[in-house]
Amino acid sequence: MPLDIIVGTQWGDEGKGRVVDLLATNMDYVARYSGGDNAGHTVTIGKQTFKLHLIPSGMAYPHTVGIIGNGVVINPDILIKEMDSLRRAGIRITPERLYISYAAHLITPAHLALDKAQEQARGSGKIGTTLRGIGPAYTEKIARRGLRVELMLSPQSFTQKVLAHVESINHTIVTLYDGEPLDGQKIAHDFMNYADELRPYIRDTAGLLHEKLKQGKYILAEGAQGTLLDVDHGTYPFVTSSNPTAPGALIGLGLGVGNANKVIGVTKAFQSRVGEGPFPTELQGEEAARLRGSGENPWDEFGTTTGRPRRVGWLDMVLLRYAVRINGITELAVTKLDILSGLPKVKICTAYIKDTLTYSDLPYGPANLDSFIPVYEELPGWNKDIRLVKEWGDLPAQAQDYIRRVEQLAGTPVHLVSVGPEREQVILL
Ligand code: IMP
Description:
Elements lengths: L2 E6 L7 H8 L5 E4 L8 E5 L2 E5 L12 E4 L4 E2 L1 H13 L9 E4 L3 E2 L2 H14 L11 H9 L12 H23 L6 H15 L3 E2 L1 H10 L4 E4 L23 H8 L6 E9 L2 E3 L11 H8 L18 E3 L1 E2 H11 L3 E5 L9 E10 L2 E3 L13 E8 L16 H14 L3 E5 L7 E3 L1
Parallel strand pairs: 1-10, 1-11, 2-5, 2-10, 5-7, 6-8, 7-9, 11-15, 14-16, 15-19
Antiparallel strand pairs: 3-4, 12-13, 16-17, 16-18, 19-20
Helix pairs in contact: 3-4, 3-5, 5-6
This protein binds inosinic acid (IMP).
The site of inosinic acid has 21 residues, from helix 4.
């Protein structure tokens, strides 16, 4: 069963990209299975930093083949630009190395316009979406009127389908949101050009992955977003419109349940979130600024896709235990441990209190967390700069204790700790 799945255990931005990048050394295929260009993965190799939104991060290696699975929603304009920028950086992006599922769905400018109109109409109840058209594209998919990638294979009918799609969304934008209609002819023209560019890459990726698994090839399913943004299991309605959790990998790649091997949950050593929604351990003021960083470094806590400053807080073990359960996580990767260096005390949330009752688990799932008050355990901090540490034994005892406590509270072993943004700044346990 050589299918390993990487998932975010929080609200996205856990540093999955670099864990994927590391594990991809032993993989033949790296596959995106959900979300779209709302995701932003930063991968640093030597002096080059790549910000990837749609192309699997594991493709930074020459030996891997990248898959964009049926569960993904694709903005072809963004994808083509990303392909070009990787090519300019010397990475080979050809139809032999990148396969796009015929059953993935397309995002158009009409979806983007609708995302914006809907967010504006929500007013103070806004979700804080990335405005990448994700929600509207998945809405159309579920409503069975989406534009699937396979339409690009039939140029004549594709134009008609794109025109009809824009007309339909224009109707909603004009009548419901009092907005301006989009130019369907221009969009159809652009989409014909995208189709010419992407046609050689379109494949039956599910069939192909199935064959490759039979041949014993190794596949890494690369999660986007995180467990708490899952449309079913996250902090609804402040979620994305797909299933970034591990079972979503099977649906989003078209693979059977029996194929899954390891499920690697990536968690930051603290907690972060962009957009609206509950966040029990959120910090404010100076404490938050300390965890967030100044924004000068690519790894500081500012959105890769939107540039928004992220909300930050202490690690929440109630939510991490929940993520372990929902995903069937078999091992954890803890990222950004170095950011905690220099703090006199480090806190972990071990339970919540609500109406004098203590909860170590979520009574009603994570949707209604606003009124839960975190219970903290304080651990001693460490002063040593750990960014160059390569061996577990060289970590300060307090940092080791912190990781051991996370393992204990999560009931899951930690197999990897990252202490900096570079590929090599990783400790394997
Ligand atoms: P959407 O996916 O653009 O519809 O946004 C829905 C929610 O998910 C918003 O709170 C976004 O900030 C959040 N979100 C979507 N993608 C990511 C991601 O890759 N990292 C972190 N948050 C994300």
